Amino acid sequence: MDSGGFPVTVKRSEVVAAVLPRQEHWLPMSNLDLLLPPLDFGIFFCYKKMSGGNKEDGDLISAESMAAVLKKALSQALVSFCPLAGEIVQNCHGEPEILCNQRGVDFSYAYADVELKDVDLYRPDLSVHGKLVPVKMHGVLSVQVTELKCGGLFVGCTFDHRAADAHSANMFLTAWAEIARAKPITLLPSFRRSIFNPRRPPQPHESLEKIYAPLLSMPPPPSADDTDQLTSRIYCIKSNEIDRLQSQSSYNGARRSKIESFSAFLWKAIAAAAAGDRSKVVKLGIVVDGRARLSGEAASLERYFGNVLSIPYVESSVGELKSASLNEVADVVHEFVAANSTAEHFLALIDWVELRRPNPAVVKVYCRDENNEAAVVVSSGQRFPVRELDFGWGGPEFGSYHFPWGGETGYVMPMPSASGNGDWIVYMHLMKKQLDFVEARAPHVFRPFSFEIVQG
């Protein structure tokens, strides 16, 4: 069936506020938050029709009852995660800040005339975007809970990236599920922005000029190729294929990580998809979470809610990537990530932003010029707590991020499968011709997602 064509009917929409009132206050953005443009990202997870864990008679829990549990737990979670119930507004300097005014979260309950097994998660642009994952219209977070024809449930959340990175979103989702099960919150969030105050005097590094640039200094992008466009697809990569890529990327005792090995393989594959000028450049950006790096400089940042990210990138010509071996490319990936994964890198980045405020900045990997063949950013979602998202009726059958950002730079996020067997679920937002190429070139690696593959 054409699973992108199923109807979705919104039964009711409301605004869910925190169950306990809090005094209105302002929460400033840190210098690392200010590196993010107005940009939303989605997360979704789905459940089959489940029986209640505490019900001796085995009665099935209705989707309406599940939605009620989610709504009640959300109102309780917003007490601790109050910025998610606020709004992002501009201050007198033109910079964004979070107004914690208890506006609440837009919450919709809908019905989709499709069974879970027939939702085409391989093509989320058709089946998920704006249908099962809401387009956020107001506030910082929007939630849609959708009952499926089979009695299952689909939960879609859209976050404002300026307020939260993936670690922060994961922390909130885990707490939300814990509250629904009447458990204490394992990680209470911290919003202490002073952790990221700049040094006096600021000590930026010249190397950051290669990664970031003031937004106003960037040249206009070249005219887009109307014959192709960024497209989202979701793949399953089997654990044995991940292990094989890691083995091929490691040599002489130098063991590369799985994410480094996968990124090197993808970088080479995108270069191989290029036709024509071998001197054109392919950029690879890697999202680095600074929490572990900065924890020695401050208290543990595991509880910190906000953005603690940097996106260093490296570039190489199509010809060089085509001729290099996988382990040679993996060495390049490892070296540039290691060089930009230190506490000093993040402290210098905080200082770099401070010297340019209030002017916004941009990561250069997002910016295309005439010599670019392609650019892609890889973000590891290996800490996505998909198996912990049990709201009282068991864990989800499937979960994924959904990040169809604009522009011409691709985005790829590998995540653990809900099966817990070491397989990866990989969200890929690339040019259609690149997706078609890597799928045809490595069908044993990039398997279009289906529940049959996961369960097989």
Textual characterization of the structure:
It is a single chain. The chain has a seven-stranded mixed β-sheet. A six-stranded mixed β-sheet has the order 1-6-7-8-3-17, covered by helices on one side. A three-stranded antiparallel β-sheet has the order 2-5-4, with no helix packed on it. The protein has 456 residues and is of the alpha+beta class. It has helices at residues 63-80, 124-127, 166-180, 239-249, 258-272, 291-294, 318-323, 326-339, 343-356, 432-441, 451-455, and strands at residues 8-16, 25-28, 40-47, 87-90, 96-100, 105-112, 141-148, 153-160, 212-214, 230-237, 281-286, 288-289, 309-310, 313-317, 361-363, 372-378, 398-402, 410-416, 424-431, 447-448. The two termini are 21 Å apart. A hairpin with a 4-residue loop joins strand 7 (141-148) and strand 8. Helix content is 25%, strand content 25%. Mean pLDDT is 92; it is low at 53-58. The longest helix is centred in the N-terminal third of the chain and has 18 residues, at 63-80.
